Amino acid sequence: MIRIVVVISAYIAAQLLSDITSLKIVILFGLSMDAGTLIYPITFTLRDMVHKTIGLQATRALIVCAAVINLFMAGLFWLVAQLPSDLSVGPQSEFAVVLAPVWRIVFASIVAEVISELIDTEVYRLWVKQTAKYQWGRVLTSNAVSVPLDSLLFVSIAFIGTMPLTVVGSILLANILVKGVTTLLSLPLIYVVPEREA
Question: Which domain holds residue 143?
């Protein structure tokens, strides 16, 4: 029970941190990339771990809850950025500069997360029905579908029309590569949590 609480908490935290850090475009190994990609890819394997332990319906609920929490976070950041600062402690303009949401990125993140992770859930479920023997295969198969889909949705909605297409293409490539490597590195995590009892 403690392990699944840790996994669910890590999933929500990674979702929130990735949405906040997606506001910055960084260079990694010569490719442009939204910084959220440094943390977000682990959510796919964490989601698989949740599915393995508490089942399909709870996993779907977790995905939707994470989206609502992300939206609430963005709304709260927007509200705080709009409120007047107490000038007796300084202008505090840094908060709005750093944390005020870019709604296009927020929308792109939430749409991509919900669609790709719900599809990841269905692919994982189908794989379990086919064969429960190879747990690593569940993660690899579901992520092989959801990672490119998530990357394409997020990058298209968030950046097309706001940046040069060469940068957008670089961000897309970096997203897929980093998420793919993270999938491979995180495969053993599926064995950390127990299988749900029938």
Answer: 2-84+91-191
